[in-house]
Design goal:
- This protein has a single domain, classed as tt1808, chain A, CATH 3.90.1570.
- The strands form 4 sheets. Strands 3-6-7-8-9-10 form a 6-stranded mixed β-sheet, sandwiched between helices.
- 25% of the residues lie in helices and 28% in strands.
- It has 5 helices and 12 strands.
- The chain is an alpha+beta fold.
Length: 178
């Protein structure tokens, strides 16, 4: 099927793209294409997911979602590496609750957009916290609407709706991918 070559893409056009192993996303009408993640990239996502799931379940925060779960608006459809979204009955991505945490793992092909346009989008959309995992610096950049910090030892995550705090051993994460 013919696709528009215009600078502005739609969700319908995005949905008609082939399933060819690439990740296709839309950010304010701009098509973003990313190759499949490396095994190291996916190991980071899996490791963080394993840390988040027990905490999220124990405190009734919702669910941890990995790739193929999306954040959708009229002109954007992003597929974060990992996110925590409050529980709600499934009724479509466009009406899904705003995530309380979004995680992106930097790679050469995503660095600029993860630190720039995606960061802006997530904060404007109302995401409570955004983590950017930087394998080069062996740190996690923790971003909230109130500020940011870089964690290279212990990351503390305190979701907005509970009093508990999750401690993530950042050194252990990077030791797991040596």
């Amino acid at each position: 099927m013919a696709m528009s070559l215009s600078a502005t893409w739609t969700i319908d056009e995005l949905d008609r793209l082939p399933d060819d192993g690439n990740r296709y996303e839309l950010l304010d009408g701009e098509l973003l294409v990313t190759p499949a993640p490396s095994d190291v990239h996916q190991t980071v996502v899996d490791w963080l997911s394993a840390q988040l799931w027990p905490f999220v379940l124990a405190h009734g925060l919702g669910r941890v979602q990995s790739p193929r779960a999306v954040i959708q608006t009229d002109r954007s459809q992003l597929e974060p590496d990992l996110m925590v979204r409050p529980w709600a009955p499934p009724r479509g991505w466009k009406t899904a609750p705003i995530p309380i945490l979004v995680v992106e793992v930097l790679s050469a092909s995503t660095r600029q957009r993860d630190l720039g346009p995606k960061r802006r989008f997530y904060m404007e959309y109302g995401v409570a916290e955004y983590w950017v995992v930087n394998r080069e610096t062996r740190a996690i950049h923790q971003i909230t609407p109130d500020g940011e910090a870089t964690c290279d030892a212990t990351l503390l995550w305190k979701p907005p709706t509970i009093s508990a705090t999750l401690e993530i051993d950042v050194k252990a994460l990077f030791a797991a991918i040596k």
